């Protein structure tokens, strides 16, 4: 039924490759099928002005897409002179998701910025970004521990994200671009390793959907995030 | 328990005043307690370039806040030279919510832009905006019917929105600013008259929340939206 | 002779309502007929960098219009990414007018910003803004006195403004939009309670006008401003 | 009494040099003492979109200052990314002044843009710009006549401008920078050859001024503009 | 003598990988040691307005760097709202270099845009970009031939680029970042397969250099470009 | 053979006039035939933040063109809201050229900004700018010596620039606009008084050129710069 031939509850092949960006304190190239995102975390020993002097840290994210990551070339945002509303929405979402599992007090006055740059897009760039950004963040914090800046990695839990949607009235997991562009509903779930809810974004594309349908989507999301969390554990060699 | 003394499932006093903006094709001043939003709908007999020639219409929204709508003066976005990410996120949400209940095909090549300008803010500006924008949109479409541009109002259902949150670990309806700024979770529900889901946005502010808590919030939202939908019916004199 | 049926030297009904903006230190909703402007004054205990350390204060103003304040919707300046030349011209005028009656030395290092936002426009938005902004400024300074920040209100005089014009070769007072758009000359007078001149702006729209005509316009302005100053005295309960 | 030793009603030495800009259809380097402005008129056989198809023409102006035209270097507006409110105010004033003496209907669908660039500034740059821009405009229209595009020069009258002010409580003509920066009042008068009023801008710098003082300033302005109009006639060899 | 231990006339290991960007008509990931640039060519069957109707094509380029491509994170140009002078200089150079070997007349009304995005930077990003962009351009034109849009690939020659510099007074080939940041002179040579000169950019960093030194650098460049041109031939399987 | 009738190795008449800008610490109006550039140097006793505290100075340049300096009016960069890539490229080049002959250490914490504004353009504006900017810089530094801020002028050598090109396959010196727009190659040489190379920029406009042709161009450049350096010596009265 799905264009890719996947089962309704089947994710695309997911891979995580760490250390891709030589200069970054932590980095991860994440692939959800043909969606490829390079996540690079930068650690700085200073915080934004509005948080200064409180003894706590900050985690933020920026998001971008190479102009030809997509099927049709998009105008370069730097040339256009501003980031689109969509870009800003996504980078705010990534930042909030990461902060939800970080103990900012335990970080001290340190800031980590995770750049998520989409090298190739095939749907689900924001969920892949969150999932990969967590790995880059973890590695950057680990490097801070190694350099003696922190006693331990100040992360409370893992965080990962997946999209689910109604496609031809079926609840399906991890929409690719073909599915996404004709889905009746599109939802993104950001969940922790302990299955806590960090963010839910659900949108009816055409006509409203029901509470029952929503619960089906949430069940799929829990399955998908569990798989992603396990992959994060393996690559990060968490016990 | 709530700073305002409201019951957990009690909305603030809501009022709707139509015809507030003399020039607009439809307008509504909506108040959720001390949150006041002026919604003004503009009807134009042309559509954006990317939809032209398809015989269908478009509904969009813009959002703004007067600089001193808030407790501390915010920089004027026009002076700053750009709209914030938050502003863009909200106006995209309002537009999607309105389109979800509009039969764009039945509109013909006509565009309606609803301006939602916050005159005074005390939390819940986006949900008040959606609820009031629906009324302004309805009135503008009704004026198109009166002018013979349309045979009937091309709206499939009503749409309204409310925020719910976890405040001191209680699920509460319609957060005001005091509650919002210290809530553990903040969710916005955009629902139709028939209780279909149009948009769900849920954010854990501090630590993740559980699926059970989320279901409690959704129940409150259904109650709140039902009240709003009834107020819309009264002011619009729908049967 | 006038579209509104007013006498040549008759102003539109003017009303002033104070305390409209809950959060502002001083606020005033002023109406010149169908022109409605919300003036909100913000008091901050710091001054711009270029005046710092001189022990004196600063008063400034910003001006905006809701997109559908006018008959045809105007593009939102925040979306367009810049303030028009007209907007900047008007807000500079409001600021200069307010400073002309303020004893900046007596203010100490304190800044007041008055936001003038046009909710509905029917000609004369700049003159209504100045007249209302004075009231908001006065109230904000009075609140500073009440909070013990100042020994007394550091205002030397009142200030108010009115437009006059040549309409069908007659000198008329307080142009509304219909008159303004076909006037032969358009002038704005900013005068003090003591009838001192603060600002004069006169523009021939089509063909030049004579000195005699200009003197007629100035006489009308003095009459109009006297009425406005009296209304300010009443609402502010000045002896 | 004046720093320059001039009589109260004495202008600075004024010179006009035409043909300064090789490429422009009309050009004039105007000097009011140490204030030097290069005015260059460009003629194009097309009009802005909003006037197209009406068979009439348009005259507009742009204004700029070289960064080191002034005593202290100002930031380059092109580098800063926007024109200041002052710049926009002045270029709008120049454009209106020129249009007031132009028969736009008689121009046909043709646009003239006059660039006024201040090479050196010593007060009065806007009045020198208007006076010189008229000459450049006249020459550009004359070249259109020579090329057979127009039967005759579509100008109704001449236009020139001068500033007057209250300096140490004396009314003085043509303020230079030293006087301008400590004047009690600063006014600009744009008048025609026939002494009609095109624009009046008067500003009290510190405390309001009286109607009598204003009339004194207007008398000085009439004297000054008469001299400028005569110099324009000579350089343009008008009979 | 060189920090990397390379011989004076030795390039870093160079690799070219084609087909890296799934959606692009032609793509190449080029590596000059630790400098990695993704070049993606987009083919569109329309040309910019200023060239339209002349029956000829256009080739252009855009350049960007991921924020953490460098040792210290750079601000994202899209967030900053404009491209730096350096970015614009480089993308103009890449475009000119490609056009110098393209027969624009033979292309017909078709445009190719090559995006060069630096994934990781270690000096020489502009020369790697030009060398890789040629490959992407060639592939995109080849795909146009395959789709029947062109009879043959309209390229006159190959083009490649390399930097040379004076490092500790020695002429060295292909500067890496360490060398570049302390070089006495930095030159970039863009040469064709036939050793024709397309672009030369030479800059003395500290003190001027001599004509003899310049000739030494040009000799190194010819050697380096010859190697790059050979690698291009291999990957493109040119005879 | 040349449109102007000049010999292949003949420059246009060059003139230098100093003291043109009354307010600037050093200024020079330079003419290369019909190309006229006003160079004005501003001395400030502070340096940019990134160099502060190192005890050394900075020299930088900005470049602009009056809108009607050219045959067809160009849009004003201040109105357009940004400087073009070409403008930024040129001003960076001027700054680098001046710094190459300045002993920044000997300057102390002082900055000189040279504004190069093209009053009229006929090709070669960047080379005229560099040549004139050197004179303005020299004068500004001399004024610093006169004011006791520096013991001597911290310039190591003179610097001047000239363009050479291939025009109808002949190497010609100092291209004017007519030649420049149809040249096969265009090169700019920035050389010192001692004939050291500061910058070389060479571009093939159409088809690549050979090393021999490049050497011919460099020989012409050395001749041209020698003449310019001599003119600089005369105007600056260097022994």
Task: Please give a quick description of this structure.
Chain A is 31% helix and 29% strand. With 239 residues, chain A is of the alpha+beta class.
Structure description:
Chains A, B, C, D, E, F: Belongs to the RNase PH family. Chains A, B, C, D, E, F: It catalyses: tRNA(n+1) + phosphate = tRNA(n) + a ribonucleoside 5'-diphosphate. Chains A, B, C, D, E, F: InterPro entries: ExoRNase_PH_dom1 (IPR001247), ExoRNase_PH_dom2 (IPR015847), ExoRNase_PH_dom2_sf (IPR036345), PNPase/RNase_PH_dom_sf (IPR027408), Ribosomal_Su5_D2-typ_SF (IPR020568), RNase_PH (IPR050080), RNase_PH_bac-type (IPR002381), RNase_PH_CS (IPR018336). Chains A, B, C, D, E, F: It is an enzyme of class 2 (transferase). Chains A, B, C, D, E, F: This is Ribonuclease PH. The structure is a homohexamer of 239-residue chains. By secondary structure, chain A is an alpha+beta fold. Chain A has a single domain (14-236), classed as 2-Layer Sandwich (Ribosomal Protein S5, domain 2). Chain A is 31% helix and 29% strand. The first copy, chain A, contains six helices and nine strands; from the N terminus they run ββββαααβαββαββα. Chain A has helices at 77-80, 85-99, 104-107, 125-146, 177-180, 211-236, and strands spanning 14-18, 26-32, 35-44, 58-65, 111-120, 159-167, 170-173, 185-192, 197-204. Chain A has a five-stranded mixed β-sheet. Chain A has a four-stranded antiparallel β-sheet with strand order 7-6-8-9. In chain A, α4 (125-146) packs parallel to α6. The longest helix of chain A has 26 residues, at 211-236. The first copy, chain A, is globular, with a radius of gyration of 18 Å. The model of chain A has no long low-confidence stretch (mean pLDDT 96). Chains in contact: A-B, A-E, B-C, C-D, D-F, E-F. β9 of chain C pairs antiparallel with β9 (197-204) of chain D.
């Amino acid at each position: 039924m799905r264009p890719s031939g996947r089962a309704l509850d089947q994710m695309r092949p997911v891979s995580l490759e760490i250390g891709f960006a030589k200069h970054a304190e932590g980095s991860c190239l994440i692939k959800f099928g043909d969606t490829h995102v390079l996540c690079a975390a930068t650690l700085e020993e200073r915080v934004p002005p509005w948080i200064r002097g409180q003894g706590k840290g900050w985690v933020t994210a920026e998001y971008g897409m190479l102009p030809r990551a997509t099927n049709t070339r998009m105008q370069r945002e730097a040339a256009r002179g501003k980031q689109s509303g969509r870009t800003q929405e996504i980078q705010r979402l990534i930042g909030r998701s990461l902060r939800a599992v970080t103990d900012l007090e335990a970080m001290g006055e340190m800031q980590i910025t995770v750049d998520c740059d989409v090298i190739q897009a095939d749907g689900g760039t924001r969920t892949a970004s969150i999932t990969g950004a967590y790995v880059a963040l973890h590695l950057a914090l680990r490097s801070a521990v190694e350099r003696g800046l922190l006693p331990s990695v100040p992360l409370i839990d893992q965080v990962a994200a997946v999209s689910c949607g109604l496609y031809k009235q079926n609840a399906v997991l991890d929409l690719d671009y073909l599915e996404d562009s004709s889905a009746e509903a599109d939802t993104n779930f950001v969940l922790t390793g302990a299955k806590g809810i960090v963010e839910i974004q659900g949108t009816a594309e055409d006509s409203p959907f029901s509470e029952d349908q929503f619960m089906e989507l949430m069940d799929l999301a829990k399955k998908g995030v569990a798989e992603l969390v396990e992959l994060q554990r393996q690559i990060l060699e968490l016990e």
